Amino acid sequence: MRFYDVFKSDIEEFRKSWVWFLVIGILLVALGVVCIVKAQTATKFSILALGWILVVSAVFWFVGSFRAVSWPMFFLYLLDALLRGAIGYLLIRHPDAGAESVTMVLAALFIIGGLYRTVAAAVIRFPYWGFTVLAGIVSVCLGVYLMANYPLTGTYFVGIVVGVDLIFDGGSLVAFAGGVRSLVDA
User: Fold this and answer.
1) Is the pLDDT score of 99 beyond 80?
2) How does pLDDT run across 5-23, given as a tens digit for each residue?
3) How many domains does the chain have?
4) Under 8 Å between Cβ of 179 and 124
């Protein structure tokens, strides 16, 4: 299955938007370089961001649980809110310790996400799809490396892995932008 067959009706929209793919790709590469250069800071920032996201989502789940108080799943909503809040608080309060815990979750995320990107790119075969396959393979390798070297990788490597992944994702978007720009109606 080729890219043209799947997105035949959207080719002109892709062609018009190639600059945005290029700009986003370049920004992702730049952000990836910053993450690698400041690996410990990127790790701590990632953990703090995750903690705050969990705390904010806990508030929404807590409010939502009381809006559904008559529903039989009220206690599950409430429990979900409390767990999100507690985990978010712990990540904010102890980001370095949280980094080691999150390392295993990130390793699984990189493996699963990399496999998905690789298979999806190979099936759809959009322009320059090989770069996305390469980005997926790199993500899988990084995830396996994280798991194999745990817990040593906890405090600094998360930032490096995120940076490398951003660089390869950005590079694949830059290549995609070049391919989309040159698309012709098939």
Assistant:
1) yes
2) 556 666 777 777 888 989 9
3) 1
4) no
